[in-house]
């Protein structure tokens, strides 16, 4: 191929040389060996982490918002909804297999579901810094149980050293860069037995933002405060649904939602309002209750929060 290149016309473009080197390593191993092969397209599993931590799930309109922020050409919300529906229909035979069985290893009462994951990816070739010229949409399904398995409540650690997002960044959208950066902050806490970490704002380090995979609510008397999203907190769809349920059906309906997930929660009065506002760390310590929401976790109460070594 090198003989065909006009060297006088070279820019910083994607003109591949003939061979590329590739080496693969499992997490428990070390890199070694590897081989050269002709330059070619990579074959990736649809569930490869490099793609899936950038998934714009749940809501087609949120894809559009995220795509605009990342300079990507998106499909229309109507197109994506159609694609999701067709994926569900193509995998509808899984419905029977998700019923509880006598030999099931999943605790009775924990819901099974068919998780639908849309992916929106830049798949065009590019070498220089800039938007890709090609985009792809992929939708796949996976049977799932409870993301926290046997846990019926969460044990959270407030993370002060690392932050999930900063003002003006991409914390308010579904983007791959918002997920890979939380692996380090959560690795050690999980090894110590915590189920998740709770991030604080990057400017003052005193306001609660969100956990790495879910939004947070607190219960105080007849009010449910939850952090305002702005541009550093992802506006979760489950979060939005919880706010609507609390405002429309009062606490009784919210309690029924908890019961679906077999959560034991304390009894409170009917809620008068949902307060979307800045939430201080001390608000957590003074709360009557705390719970998290998310697509994967559903609705789950928080049993303990550890801050500066105190739980």
From TrEMBL:
Molecular functions (GO terms): branched-chain-amino-acid transaminase activity
GO BP: amino acid biosynthetic process; branched-chain amino acid biosynthetic process
SUPFAM superfamilies from the UniProt entry: D-aminoacid aminotransferase-like PLP-dependent enzymes (SSF56752)
Catalytic activity entry: L-valine + 2-oxoglutarate = 3-methyl-2-oxobutanoate + L-glutamate; L-leucine + 2-oxoglutarate = 4-methyl-2-oxopentanoate + L-glutamate; L-isoleucine + 2-oxoglutarate = (S)-3-methyl-2-oxopentanoate + L-glutamate
Statement: the UniProt record of this protein carries the keyword Amino-acid biosynthesis: yes
Cofactor: pyridoxal 5'-phosphate
Catalytic activity, EC: 2.6.1.42
InterPro entries attached to this UniProt entry: Aminotrans_IV, Aminotrans_IV_CS, Aminotransferase-like, B_amino_transII, BCAT-like_C, BCAT-like_N
Pfam families in the record: Aminotran_4
Top-tier EC class: transferase
Entry keyword set: Amino-acid biosynthesis, Aminotransferase, Branched-chain amino acid biosynthesis, Pyridoxal phosphate, Transferase
PROSITE patterns for this protein: AA_TRANSFER_CLASS_4
Top-rank taxon: Eukaryota
Protein family per UniProt: Belongs to the class-IV pyridoxal-phosphate-dependent aminotransferase family.
Name of the protein: Branched-chain-amino-acid aminotransferase
Organism: Trapa incisa
Taxonomic lineage: Eukaryota, Viridiplantae, Streptophyta, Embryophyta, Tracheophyta
């Amino acid at each position: 191929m090198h003989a065909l290149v006009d060297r006088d016309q070279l820019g910083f473009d994607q003109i591949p040389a003939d061979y590329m080197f590739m080496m693969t390593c499992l997490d428990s191993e070390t890199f070694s060996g590897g081989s050269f092969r002709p330059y070619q397209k990579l074959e990736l599993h649809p569930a490869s982490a490099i793609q899936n931590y950038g998934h714009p799930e749940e809501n087609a309109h949120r894809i559009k918002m995220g795509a605009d922020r990342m300079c990507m050409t998106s499909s229309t919300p109507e197109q994506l909804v159609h694609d999701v529906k067709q994926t569900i229909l193509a995998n509808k035979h899984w419905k029977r297999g998700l019923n509880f069985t006598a030999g099931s290893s999943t605790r009775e009462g924990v819901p099974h579901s068919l998780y639908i994951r849309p992916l929106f990816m830049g798949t065009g070739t590019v070498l220089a810094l800039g938007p890709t010229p090609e985009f792809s949409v992929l939708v796949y399904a996976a049977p799932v149980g409870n993301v926290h398995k046997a846990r019926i409540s969460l044990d959270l650690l407030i993370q002060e050293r690392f932050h999930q997002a900063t003002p003006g960044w991409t914390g308010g959208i579904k983007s791959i860069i918002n997920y890979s950066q939380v692996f380090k902050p959560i690795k050690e806490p999980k090894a110590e037995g915590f189920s998740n970490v709770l991030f604080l704002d990057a400017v003052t380090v005193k306001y609660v933002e969100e956990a790495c995979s879910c939004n947070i609510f607190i219960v105080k008397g007849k009010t449910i405060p939850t952090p305002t999203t702005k541009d550093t907190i992802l506006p979760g769809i489950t979060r939005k649904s919880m706010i609507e349920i609390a405002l429309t059906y009062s606490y009784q309906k919210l309690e029924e939602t908890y019961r679906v997930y077999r959560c034991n929660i304390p009894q409170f009065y009917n809620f008068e309002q949902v307060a979307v506002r800045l939430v201080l760390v001390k608000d957590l310590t003074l709360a009557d209750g705390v719970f998290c929401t998310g697509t994967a976790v559903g609705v789950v109460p928080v049993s303990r929060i550890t801050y500066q070594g105190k739980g």
